[in-house]
Specification:
There is one protein chain. The protein is α/β, with parallel strands linked by helices. The protein contains six helices and eight strands. The chain has helices at residues 15-29, 65-71, 73-76, 98-109, 131-140, 150-165, and strands at 4-9, 33-38, 50-58, 61-62, 81-87, 116-121, 123-124, 145-146. Strands 1, 2, 3, 4, 5 and 6 form a six-stranded mixed beta sheet that branches. The protein has a two-stranded antiparallel ribbon with strand order 7-8. Strand 5 (81-87), helix 4 and strand 6 (116-121) form a beta-alpha-beta unit. Helix 1 crosses helix 6 (150-165). The protein binds flavin mononucleotide. Flavin mononucleotide (FMN) binds at residues 11-16, 56-60, 86-89, 95-96, 101, 122-124, 129, 133, 136-137.
Length: 166
């Protein structure tokens, strides 16, 4: 039977959801039984053989990831876990340092040690944002537009196939 993989993601404006969907699609294409689900609607991790966690970075922190890891600590400690963060640090130092994002991602999933991690460029569309977020974006001068690198996402997902179903 194909390994069941959950791609659990957080998202505020949808760009991380798109990346999570692309990862699930690639894993499914490789023969795994993979689904992407907003982590807010994940009740139990029972029955999953591996988990991919993903979250956008806001003000230096991966959104909603640490509480999810704490809530499901037991189940997550028994399966291979991969983790990715989405942000604009990969395309602009104005949005933060890549090394800080890496450290924040490790911190959010600790004490888990992921079988793989990645940081992907995200997307910023001020016309869809609330006033406060728009003000922050203007203040730091973060680059707007869709910077998602679908080939990099697919390549990482292909790397996960053997690591999640080993
Ligand atoms: C208010 C605000 C703060 C942000 N802070 C960071 C940050 O600290 N580091 C980073 O790399 N990207 C940062 N970003 C960029 C987001 O992570 C990026 O737009 C991401 O693709 C959003 O994902 P979502 O559409 O799934 O919510 C920020 C964006 C906003 C609007």
């Amino acid at each position: 039977m194909a390994a069941r993989i959950l791609v659990a993601y957080a998202t505020k404006y949808g760009s991380t959801a798109g990346i999570a969907g692309a990862i699930a699609k690639e894993l499914a294409g490789a023969g795994l039984d993979a689904t992407a689900v907003d982590l807010m609607s994940v009740g139990s991790l029972e029955g999953y053989d591996g988990v991919v966690l993903g979250a956008p970075v806001y003000m230096g922190r991966p959104l909603d990831l640490a509480p999810f890891v704490a809530r499901h600590a037991d189940a997550l400690s028994r399966v291979p876990v991969a983790a990715f963060a989405v942000g604009l640090a990969p395309v602009s130092p104005k949005a933060g340092q890549l090394e800080q994002v890496r450290t924040a991602l490790s911190g959010a999933v600790a004490p888990l040690v992921p079988v793989a991690t990645a940081i992907f460029p995200g997307a910023l569309d001020p016309s869809r944002m609330g006033l406060a977020d728009r003000a922050v974006v203007r203040l730091i001068g973060a680059p707007t537009g869709d910077h998602r690198d679908w080939e990099a996402v697919a390549a990482w997902a292909r790397e996960l196939v053997s690591r999640l179903s080993a």
